[in-house]
Each structure stands twice: as structure tokens, then as C-alpha cells.
Amino acid sequence: MIAGSIPSEFGDFRNIGRLVLHSNSLHGSIPPGIFNNTKLFLLSLTGNNLSGNLPGNINLPNIEWLSIGINDLSGVIPHTISNASKLRTFDVVTNRFHGSIPTSLGQLRSIEHLGFGFNFFTEPYPELRFIDSLGNCKSLIYLSLSYNPLNATIPSSVKNLSSLQYFLARNSGLKGTIAQELGNLSSLVTINLGYNSLTGSIPMSFQELSNLQGLGVNDNRIGGPIPEALCHLKNLGFLYLNRNQITGMIPGCLGNVTSLRRLYLNNNKLTSTLPASLGNLHDLLAIYVNSNFLNGSIPEELGSLKVAIEIDLSRNNFYGEIPRTLGGLDQVINLSLAQNQLQGPIPSSFGAIVALERLDLSQNKLVGSIPNSFQSLQYLKHFNASFNKLSGEIPTKGPFANFTQDSFLSNPAFCGGSPHLQFPPCQPDSPKTAMKSKTRKLLLILAPIGSISILLVLGITLVFLRFRGKKSSPTGTTIFPAITHERVSYYELERATNGFSQENFLGKGSYGSVYKGVFLDGTNVAVKVFNLEIEGAFKSFDVECEVFRSIHHRNLVKVITSCSNLDFKALILRYMGNGSLEKLLYSDNLFLDILKRLDIVIDVASALEYLHHGYSIPIVHCDLKPSNILLDEDMVAHVSDFGITKLLGGGRDSAVRTKTLATMGYIAPEYGSEGLVSTSCDVYSFGILVMETFTRKKPIDNSFSGDFNIRDWVVAALHNSSMVHIMEENMLISSYDDVGVAAAKVECVTLIMELGLRCSTQLFGERPSMGVALVSLKKIKAQFLSKLH
Asked: Distances in Å between the alpha carbon of 318 and those of 321, 334, 570, 712?
């Protein structure tokens, strides 16, 4: 982590091509000379505390990547940004820039990513004029305007952004109607226009958006019906239409959009019944239709939503009995049927909804008693059955020991319960007691009949099983083990991390933050939350999901599951109790002996050898460094963070080109200068990591001057036979060490350093494979252990 200010001398460097200082603690202004460097092609200062303005005259003719987001910069974006004619990425998200977004952006013909979110940009004209100019930008994929007071309409010229995939304008002061021309952008994957002042209706032209996965127009003033055009979007995963003025019925054809994961239609003016076809949405995690004017009975088919976590049907006019099929939704955490006209008893099957935390049945016309099965709902924290016609004894066990009177108000026939509820004790002739008496009499009559029936059924079952055993045997196999955890909701993650609190914060990366979480079953996890306003975050999430879906190895961090919606993406990982290798190396209170360091680099080599050679498509990690090596409770090392990983479809000896950033100091020369990525790049990074692990010196350390780096330092030590001077001193200090042990340690580290240098040689063709490196490390360990005994 680098602190302080950027030296003014950086502005005088005229031959530097790449300047990467992102994710540090830098403050002060950016030296203006940096913006007058004709050789600079990549500038990344994202994630610091930099302040000040951009210079009025930007002269970066070769810049391709300009990322200065998540700082405290202010002022305006100068029109001279158009001088950066090769610019592909321009990201200023989360600063204090103001004024209008310059129309000169239209001269950036190669631009792919524009990130303006979380600033104070305004538009002096009724329409977003800069969008008119972007029609010439035929490669534009990503446009973020969220959280700016733009106060303008979307112009019809938006139709010219033919390559656009992400249009994010949440809470950006948009007004007027949603441009019909958005339906012309067939490449769109996500549209987020929530929290604006949009009026009119949802355009019918949206039916042409065949690639659309997320549509958010919530918290506007949209009216009219839900168009059946949305039923044509077969890839739609998230539909947020909530808190608008939408009228009419819910189209039954939405049940055909089986890709839907979240459906938010609440707080509108919807009428008619809830379509039974919604039961076809077997992957639906959340459905909110509360605060509408829906009527009729609740469809039994909703019992087919087996993975649903959140269901809210409250504040409507539903009547009839509650379907017993809802009791089969054992993943539901939040279930609300409040403020309807529901009648009949509370289904005892609800006692099987083991994950239930919130159940609201208040303000209906329910009768009967609270089922005793509810006492087994160990996670139930919020229960409301008030303002019904319920009767009988209130349960006292399980969660009912903690509920207050508010859970049971205005049910005059309730009795008993925990003493603090202050309900009258149940009388012998109370409905509860009468029911027990009837049950005993019925059992006396049915017991003999039941015994005979049970014997008959057992006999038939044994015959059937014997016949079945002769006829068939299991032959199916599975390629990958089953997922051990069900899908997780945002609500679960918020609870597990205590609201993503600072005390649960574990660290920050290029694309977001990591928090410790504890699920209700006591499982510790690490929750990696992606900052979707950062360029590349969407792609990083997709890449990690793709990689972890296929690979399984002891020394790779295990992804348990994920949480993904329009505004939030997170990976839930196995929690590593001993943190990162970086933390252990540079802590003043922790120490790793030589054998433990050797075991760690062997674990890392094993993981890389698997990625390069153990899977059908070679996988290049691309960002190997100590902060991405995590250690579990047994000090086993696991490689993590696959956000910029590349898959080599051409085979192990192939290479691909990329503009994606890795971390300075660990980047192979061909990767840094040409963007050329191969498995050999990981070998180079591994060599640097090995040297850092045994010397406790970063590759670009403050003690190094000029172009001198960790390789040069190690080479000099080997040449001068002074290896003992570069080893971390604690490795040589031990109460049981004699001269022979100390000599064995120096010899061991010398061999390791030689391997590190071979792995990090400049010419990638001369580097060994990870398989060779792994075998070498195991031999070094065996040789070292033999000299200790």
C-alpha cells in the first residue's frame, strides 16, 4: 500500500508508457505533466484519495486506458479529452466532477467504456446532448451515468449506440418518457433507469432486446400496463418495475420467461388475479407483488417455486384459504401475506419452512389456532398474526418464547402463551383442550385399523423393493459434485455480514471489497462484493463464475455460491481463517518458519500446475501475488481472485492479448508491454512471489532505486554469496538451530531463489513449466528435511 503524494517528477517522465498506482492511499493532486505525455498508453489511479482538477489541456495521443475513479477529484472534464483519440476506457466514477459531460467525447472513435457515475454532472439542455455525439462511437459497450443530477431526457439519438451492452442511469435526474429507440439496441444486457422521474409507459420496442438480462425502471412514475412484449425476453433474469403507477393485470405469459430470478412488481396499481403460470418460474428467488389491487385466491402453483427466498403478497385483496402447498417452500426466509382477505386456518405445513425468519399473516380473517409445528422454526424472528380471528393456546416453545404481544394483537380468543404476553390462561373447555379430547377418542377408534394398515403397507413395500433391486442398479455418474449450499439472497448476506459493517471488513481489491460473514447455521464465509460502478466489475464477476463452475482443486479457494441481481453481485467463498500470505509476511506479530513458507509455495505451485495442465482448457490466473494467496485454519494455501483470468482455448502453448491490468511488479514483461498472456506469465509471477516469500521484500520496494528490483537484488546476493543477508532474519533465528541447521537453511533458500530467478527470466521461452517448478520445490524440501535429521 503506497501512501503520500505522487511526486511532481512523474510529470516529467516522457518515455513512460504505463503508470499504474490504483488501490493505494495517495493524496494530493495529480502532477499536470502526466496529462502531457505523448508516450503514455495506460494510466490507472483508481481507488486513492487524490484531489484537485484536471488540466485544461490534455495531450495524451496514445492513451488507451484512463482510469481515475474513486478519488476526490473535482472541476470539469475538459473538452480536450478528445485529443486522446485512441482512448478505449475513460472512468471517472465516484469523484466530485461537475458541469456538463463534454460532447467532444464523440470524437473518441475507439471508446468502449465510459464511467461517469457518482459525480455532480448536470445537463444545461433539455436532452442529454453528449449522447447525440456518441453516435460515432461504434465500439461503446458500457455507459454509466448513475447518481448524477443530470435533469434531462434520453434523446432519440440513443438508437445510434449500436454496440451498447450496459446502460446504467440510476438516480440520475432523468425525466420524460423512456426512449422507444432503446429497443433498437439489440446488444443491451442491462438497463437500469431506476429512481428517476420517468413517465409514460414501458416501450413495446423492448421486445427486440433478445439479449437483455436485467431491466430496472423502478421508482419512477411509469404508467400503463405491463406489456406482453417483455414475455419475449427469454434471457431476462431481473425485472424491477416496482414503485410506479403501472395498471392492468400481470401478463400470464411472464410464466414463460423461465430465466427470471427476481420479479418486483410491488407498489403499483395492478388489478385482477395472480397468474398461476408464475409457478413455472422454477428458478425464481424473489417475487414482490405487494401493495397493489390484486384479488382472487392465491394460486396453489406458487408451491412450485422451490428455490424462492422472498415472497411478498401483502396489501392486496386476496381471499380464500392459504394454499397448503406454500409449506413446501423450505428455502423461504421472508413470507408476507398480510393485509388481505384470507380466511380459514393457518396451514400446519408452514412448520416445515425451516429457513423462515419473517412470517406476517396479520390483518386477515384467519381462524383456528397457531399450529404447534411452528415451535420448530428455529430461525423465526419476526412473527405477526395480529388482527385475525384466531383462537386457542399460543405456543410457548422455540421462537415463541421471545415474541411480544404485538405478534398476537386483536385475536380475542387467544389464551395461554409465555407469561410475559399476559394472555389469560386456557380453560379446560378451551378450544385447545376440547380438540385434545376429540383427538384421544378418535385415536381409540382408529388405532386397531391403523396397525393393520401399517403392516399391510410394510409388506407391499418389501416386495416392491426386492423386485426393484433385481431389475435396476444405479449407473449414472456426475462430472462435478453437487452444490452444497443453496442460492443466497442479498438479505441473507446483509444479515451474515452485519450490514457489511466495518468490523466485518476483510480487505479491498480492484473490483470491490471482501467481508466476513456468518450464516445462521454457524458457517463462516467470505463475501466478495463487486463494485459494479468500476469498469470491468461485471466482466470480472462473470469470469470468476465461469472459472469456478469448472475447476476443483485442494489449493484453489472454494466458491460456495453467489448472489446476483441488477444492482448487486457477490461471491460467497470459503472463509480462510489465517488471512492472506501478504498479511502473514508483513505482520509484526506473526512469523512463518522456513518449512511453512516452503509448504505455501508448493501449494501455490500445485494450484497453478492444475490450472495450466490439469484442466481441458489451460487457465491463466494473470494476477498472482501474496494478497491473492489465502491460508485456511490448517495453514494450507489457496489461490484466489480469478477476476482477470484468461482461458486459452488454443491450448497450452497458445497466448491471447489483453488490455486488462494486473499488479505492477508481478507482471511478466511480455504481458506488461504487449498485453500478451500465456501460462508463462503465471510462471513469471510465481517466481517473483517465491522470492518475496523468503525475503519479505516487495518486488518494487521503497529501498530499491531506479530500475533496480527484487530480481536484481537476488542476483547480486547469489553472485556475492550473501544469501544470508537477504533472507528474512527470523528464519535463521531459532532456539534449536545449530551451525549445521543454519547452513541447511541458507542452502535451501539459495536453491529456492535460483528457481525463482529461472521462473522470472525475461524471455518467456526460457521459463520452466509449473509442473517442472513443482517437482523442483518438492525435491528441495526433501533435501532440506534430510539434513535436519
From this structure: 9, 18, 35, 76
